[in-house]
Write a structure and sequence with these properties.
Layout: E1 3-8, H1 13-24, E2 29-36, H2 40-50, E3 54-57, H3 63-69, E4 76-79, H4 81-87, E5 95-98, H5 106-114, E6 118-121, H6 125-140, E7 145-147, H7 150-158, E8 167-174, H8 184-187, H9 192-195, H10 205-213, H11 215-227, E9 235-239, E10 245-251, E11 256-260, H12 266-274, E12 297-298, H13 305-316, H14 320-336, H15 344-355, H16 364-383
Parallel strand pairs: 1-2, 1-5, 2-3, 3-4, 5-6, 6-7, 8-9
Antiparallel strand pairs: 8-10, 9-12, 10-11
Helix pairs in contact: 4-5, 5-6, 6-11, 6-14, 10-14, 11-13, 13-14, 13-15, 14-15, 14-16, 15-16
């Protein structure tokens, strides 16, 4: 039987590549739901091509345009974030691929888990913000959370057949982004265009900036802590410029497993969508002779302070990772709009973490309030600069 999928964020980088996976395997998947935040033109194209049961545009101002364009199509059309959070419960859905950006992915993921849907998780912020709630809900509802991030997919693949063997250490690899090896004086002058020029990966603006600032790796460390039930000190980050070794797992006997491949997000997307099977693909193959040297370096956390801030948040626990994430989303938006400089993003995040209210055992409402409070504080800090 074909798998019936919902793709939340179908017009973004992960969403469009997921649809490439669908195209590559005719008959294996049915697209039940597509959602987008703002890109109504591409969403219309996707709706006409894949004939989903339901589509949702987050920006309610775009509803009429979407509805008019699809008037002759047999598709239900909705708008608004509440609608996105509700459509994941449709009974015909088997797998929900959450590829929304930032905090917005939290409530739809919670609802999908409560509805018993298998989760293909590309929205790392969901676990960063409320990992305790998400993992508990998944256990209660017997729902699998399959990672889509290349690093977490690598760890997941390394753990196949090893789930009862204790992990000694997880090693997350980082490309180092466009500013690997640079010093603070250089970073203070970085432009928006420079920061969006990633050497290995093609991603959306927000995650590309996170990669350049190393915040992405900090968020991934927090995500790994919840996905694989490990302690913060058992997660190590190393810079691997070639982006061939996607991550590694060290077991208590000292043995290390790694997953390798070319930097192509379609592979981890497909693995999450087809698990526990591996479908044949025509993706380009890795050749060792093309990469005679695979190198590894230590992260300079004095220069890339965001990684250290993420570990601080992870150690502090409670709602602090939620505060970190909210402040980062505001800071990245501020940098992209050229309101603050590249290095100033870390200053905004650190000051927000110091000012926001710490809740040691937060509820979902606490997380929602913490997100709003941290965003307001971060905005205030930016405005005062």
């Amino acid at each position: 039987m074909s798998k019936r999928i919902a793709i939340l964020g179908s017009t973004g980088s992960i969403g469009t590549q997921a649809l490439e996976v669908v195209d590559a395997h005719p008959g294996q998947f049915e697209v039940e739901v597509l959602t987008a935040n703002n890109n109504v033109e591409l969403l219309i194209e996707q709706a006409k091509k894949y004939h989903p049961n339901t589509i949702v545009i987050g920006n309610e101002d775009k509803y009429q345009q979407l509805s008019d364009a699809l008037r002759d199509c047999d598709v239900k059309v909705y708008a608004g974030n509440d609608a996105i959070a509700q459509v994941v419960q449709i009974s015909s859905i088997d797998v929900v691929l959450t590829a929304m950006v930032g905090f917005s992915g939290l409530l739809p993921t919670i609802n999908a888990i409560k509805a018993g849907k298998q989760i293909a998780l590309a929205n790392k912020e969901t676990l960063v913000v409320a990992g305790d709630i998400i993992t508990k809900l998944a256990l209660e509802n017997k729902v699998s959370i399959l990672p889509v991030d290349s690093e977490h997919s690598a760890i997941f693949q390394c753990l196949a057949g090893e789930f009862h063997n204790p992990i000694e250490k997880i090693i997350l690899t980082a490309s180092g982004g466009p500013f690997r090896g640079k010093k603070l004086d250089f970073l203070r002058k970085v432009t928006r265009c420079q920061a969006l020029n990633h050497p290995n990966w093609s991603m959306g603006d927000k995650i590309t900036i996170d990669s350049a600032s190393m915040m992405n790796k900090g968020l991934e460390a927090i995500e790994a802590r919840w996905l694989f039930n490990v302690k913060p000190d058992d997660i190590e980050v190393v810079v691997h410029p070639q982006s061939i070794v996607h991550s590694l797992v060290q077991f208590e006997d000292g043995s290390i497993k790694a997953q390798l491949g070319l930097p192509d997000m379609r592979l981890p997307i497909q693995y999450a969508m087809t698990f526990p099977q591996r479908y044949k693909s025509d993706f380009p193959r890795f050749n060792f002779m093309d990469y005679p040297e695979l190198t590894f370096e230590k992260v300079d956390v004095k220069v890339f302070k965001n990684l250290d801030l993420a570990y601080q948040a992870m150690h502090k626990g409670g709602n602090m990772p939620c505060i970190l994430n909210a402040a980062n989303e505001v800071a990245v938006d501020g940098f992209l709009k050229q309101r603050i400089g590249f290095v100033e993003m870390s200053d905004v995040i650190e000051k927000t973490m110091m000012k926001a209210s710490l809740v040691n055992h937060p509820s979902l409402d606490d997380y929602i309030q913490s997100n709003a409070e941290a965003r307001a504080i971060a905005e205030e800090i930016i405005n005062a600069r």
